[in-house]
Amino acid sequence: MSQATLEANKKLIRFLIEEALNKGNLDLADQYFAPDYESHIAGAPPMGKGPGTFKQVISAWRKAFPDWHMTIEELIAEGDKVCNRFTTTGTHKAKLWGIAPTNNSMIVKGIEIHRVKDGKVAESWICDDVPSIMQQLGVVPRPAFQFIEVDERFQW
């Protein structure tokens, strides 16, 4: 794949993050997602296909976190895939996953990989730090981390 195509794929993902995810222009999915687009979300049941899947997922997040914002930390393109390492922030103002609004803020890191075909997003694999989200919303307690002394034989 040419360097120009790799850069075009990265530009597409950057554009969709800024315009669709961060600004809420979800109708862009109709133009920039393949008709048989598939989303794979770690721990979630299989979802339907098509741009509506993207709209449904992002709409739920933006409703629950009206100030939701994704910051791209790094974009890497190879072959037909673009990997986005990101940080997402937001304040929980509406129901999410059956959890009533907590008004808690969250900062979550994650990675997503998008497959681009013919200038459209054809497939996405998304991995958010869900345990951290649940802890920040106050649904589950944070673990008490404890550092232990390591035997000198195991130090590097």
Please characterize this protein's 3D structure.
- It is built from 4 helices and 5 strands, in the order H-H-E-H-E-E-E-E-H.
- It is α+β, with helices and mostly antiparallel strands and 156 residues long.
- Strands 1-5-4-3-2 form a 5-stranded mixed β-sheet.
- The longest helix is centred in the first third of the chain and has 20 residues, at 3-22.
Q: Which features characterize this protein?
A:
alpha+beta; five-stranded mixed sheet; 156 residues; Nuclear Transport Factor 2, Chain: A; 4 helices
CATH fold annotation: Nuclear Transport Factor 2, Chain: A
Q: How far apart lie the N and C ends?
A: 40 Å
Count of extended strands: 5
Class per helix and strand makeup: alpha+beta
Percent strand equals 25-35%
Q: Can you give the mean pLDDT?
A: 91
What's the architecture in CATH terms? Roll
* Cα gyration radius (Å): 18 Å
Which sequence of SSEs, written as H and E, runs from N to C?
HHEHEEEEH
